[in-house]
Structures are given as C-alpha cells and as structure tokens.
Amino acid sequence: MRDLINRLDHVRPADLSALAVSELVQSGIAEEAIVWIVDHGFTHFSDLSGGRAPIGLGETPAGQVAISAIPLVQDARAYLPLSRRGQVIGVLEVSPAAEGVIDELTPVATTITTSLLATIHISDVVDRHQGSGALSLPATIQKRNLPLSAYADDQVDVGSFLEPAYEVAGDAIDYAINPEGVHLAIFDAVGHGLRSTILTTLALSTYRLLRRQNASLEETARAVDDVVATSGRPGDFVTGVIAMIRPRENELEFWNAGHQSPLLLRDRSHRFLASDPPGLPFGLRHDGNGHSTVPSQPGDVIFLYSDGVTQARDPHRTMWGETHLAEAALARNNAGQSMSHICRTVLDDVMSWTANPLADDASIVGLRRVS
Questions:
Q1: Beta bridge partners of 292
Q2: What digits encode the pLDDT tens for the residues 70-97?
Q3: Are residues 278 and 159 in the same domain?
C-alpha cells in the first residue's frame, strides 16, 4: 500500500485514475475501482478514467458520500470521499467491500485527493471532468477566485457556495483562517457579465492584498473603494461586506458597503445585523459609515449572502426574501448540518423557488464557531 501511495504521488495527471484502479485491482484489495469527480454544480459525477457515462448525484450512495463527506459501505461496495478539510472533489468507489476496507483505503483516498488538487495548477484533467469547459468567460474568471467550498477544524466550520455554476459571475466570496481570527467577505458588482466580473475581481484582489498586510477593516474598505472608483466607469460600484471574527476576544467586526445585512444565528434564533448608519457601496467614495462591532460567542453562525439569494423571484415574481433565508438556515443549523451542506442546500432552495435559471448570481459564505 505504501508503494501505491508513493506512485500516486508522482504519476502524471492523465494517468492517475488508471494507476489507482490498476494497483487496487492487482493488489487484491478490489475487483473494481472508480474515481468519480463531482461537477461545479454538485449535480453529477464524471468517471476520471472516461470509461463510464456521467451519473447524477441524486440519491445514489456515491452522492450521499459526496454530500456528507463520510465513507459508506452499501451493497458490498465501499464509497470514500475524495476530500480535504471537508472540501469534496469526488468519490472513490470500490468493490467488493471486504471487512476493514475503509481503514485500508482511507490513505489511498487521501493521496488521490492531494494529487488531484495539485494537478489543477498544472493540468486541465480535473477541470474538464468538473465541467469547466462549459463555463462562460466571466464564470471561468470567477471560479479561479473562489475559496474552497468547505473548511473545518476544532474551532470553526466554514462553508461557501455560488449559483448558477456556469454563467453570470458578478459575485465573489472569500474567507481566510488567520492567527488573528477568521476573515469573511462577499462582493457583488453592479451589472452582469465580463465587466462586473472584472470589477469584482479588482475588489476581491485588493481585499486579499490588504488582508495579507494585516490592515484594519477601515483601511481595507478605503482601499477597495479607491480601486473601484478609479478603475470603473462613472456609476460603477461594488456592494460588499468584509468581516472579521476574533474568537479570543469574542468579537465580530464587519464593514457593510451597501450590501445585504449579515445573518446571525444564536441560541436557535436569528437576527440580521444592520449597520447604523449604512455605508455606501465601494466605488462611490468612502463616507466612513458601515462599520459595526458586535459580541460573538461559541455556537454563533454568521452568513454573508448576495441579493441573488433574497431577491430571487418565483414565477409569480414573489421574492424569496430574508424570512425564507433565515428559516432555511436556522432549521439546517439546528439539525447539526455542516456549513458547506447548509450553504449548498440553501441555494438549492433558491433554485427551486425560482423554477427557472437564475437571472443573477446567488452566493453565500457562512461560519460556525465550534469553540
């Protein structure tokens, strides 16, 4: 098994699936093995070897594992998530499932995951199976700027998701786990298409630069505002929220630039955190408003989301609204679901509400304080 792990760590991207399957079969661990890759929309799997037709996640065992990130043995087949820190990129399916096979295959699944994630920077193999070829140009830029859709440790659980998966692309979401605390951010540029993507990318890149310089939220807000104002056309702007959760200080600090109010869940109830007075969107010249600091405690959940979530309309033009968002998030949080699962299924609710393709990006990033 150690030799297999070593070879997987050095194989060419296009040969990874074939090597893993061949070695698992030749070693007698399995008679059949499949490396499934999940698409950007988290709706179907693609066989990394290309030998099988794509399958939907649906209610399949592999889909259950992709959603839960928990290994499963069912009908003499073993399914292991290809995941890192809760971020699932696929599933390893093996049969027959002998006793103890999960423990034996876990290091293999971990190595496959690491190898697949590494190939993203040097090969298009994984991107093609994720459906990147179907992305619009704005969505292609947007996807490269997205953080992992899941992260978890003993202090925080973070999730994020964005719809539609393949087009529009005016939103950006981000987070960072730093020594001083956890950073969250969301940006939404005016308009749609390539121009809004460029504005959002400028705002996001400036935010990341100032964050890495350990700048204050006010300094960061001023820098983002200046970049959007000087780079855009008259009337261009970007709404957004930049936030910092400091667990040691039990404090949540955020800056709201003309965006939807953050949603806080605490003690099985909710409230929206409005800034008083509200701040102007980035690009309309920083007026010093929009800054807030509120207490934070273990168990708190905070969501940042775009107007594409709450303003999504059904066929009768009724908006989904803040009430639906709060109820959906609260019910799932009370049920103990992971943040990545909550974010993904909340957007599933939005998609079901509209019954049509979204006319605007719907994005969400959330954090739960575990301790």
A1: 254
A2: 999 999 999 999 988 778 899 999 998 8
A3: yes
